[in-house]
Every structure is written in C-alpha cells, then in structure tokens.
Amino acid sequence: MEWLIPVLIVVAVLVLIGIYFWATYNSLVQLNVRVDEAWSGITVQLKRRADLIPNLIETVKGYASHEKAVFENVTRARAETLSATSPGEAGIAEGHLQQALKSLFAVAEAYPQLQASQNFLQVQHALVDTEDKIQAARRFYNGGVRELNTKIKVFPNNLFAKGLGFTEREFFEVADGATIAEPPRVQF
Predict the structure, then answer these.
(1) Which of 69, 79, 111, 172 could potentially form a cystine with 87 if both were Cys, beta carbons 3.0 to 4.6 Å apart?
(2) Would you say the pTM of this structure is higher than 0.70?
(3) How far apart are CA 138 and CA 101, in angstroms?
(4) Of 179, 5, 188, whose CA–CA distance to 93 is shortest?
C-alpha cells in the first residue's frame, strides 16, 4: 500500500503535464489559424484596392494623358502589391504604392474638372474606404502575430513550441514608415 501514494502522485503530475501540453498546443494552433485568417483578410483588401487603381488611373488619364510616368509608377506599384506573398514583401510594396498614389493625387489636384468628376469622386471614396479596411485588417493581423509570438516565446512554451512546428510570424509593417506617415491626400 505504501507504494500506491507515490505512484498516484506521479500519475497526477503526469496528467497535469499532459493537460498543460494539450491546452498549450491547442491554443498555439488556434493562434496560428487566427494569424492565417488575418493575413487572408489583408490580402483581400489589398486586392480590392488594386482592383480600384486601374479605374482611378483611367479617370485621371482622361484629363492628364501626358503624365505617363506617374501612371507607369502606379501600375508598377500595383503589380508589386499583387505579387507580394509575405508580410515583408507586402510592407515594401505598400510603401511604393503609397508614394505612387501621392504622385497620382498630386496630378489630379491640378485639374479642377477632374476633381468635380462624379466617377473620380466615387473611385476616391471607394479607395478611402478600402484604405480604412486595410488598416483595420493590418491591426487585426499584427495583434494576432503579437499574441502568437508571445505565446511561443514565454517559458516553458519556448522549450517545445518550435519542436512542434510553431515559429514566430512576421509583422506587417511598411518598410519605410515615412512613406505612410502622411497618407495620400484625397479631397472631395
């Protein structure tokens, strides 16, 4: 009978450790899925914005067809955004697109008739709405990444999380913060 108490203690400790590992693994899986879902939300909004840009270019082209370099830069930046596959690439592409859009809106400001065009105003409104959604999706993604990375780094999770295939994820940050410090000015 004396041996039964130590065996029960060892079994109880092993059960508690097993429950801890089970709960931790499941929470890491949930956080990983949440980050994947959030990244998907960002890509949807980036695609939506990229789909709006050709309409914006065509509208501006009708008034300022001689601004070929500006249109080419916006088109190139749009393509770069669509081809980005990681948060790091998307951050770099985001900076380039913001710079190109600033140039495009600067051109648009020189044409009062364009500023009054209903089509131009609709595209601008849709673009502003999409920019807001991108920022919300970015905050959601970065929040999920923060939670996942913290869960992976804390002790004792850091001892086994990487062995189970969980790695830290990259935040979605624009490579050159100065490019988005002042967003493109859109006037109605």
Answers:
(1) 172
(2) yes
(3) 19
(4) 179
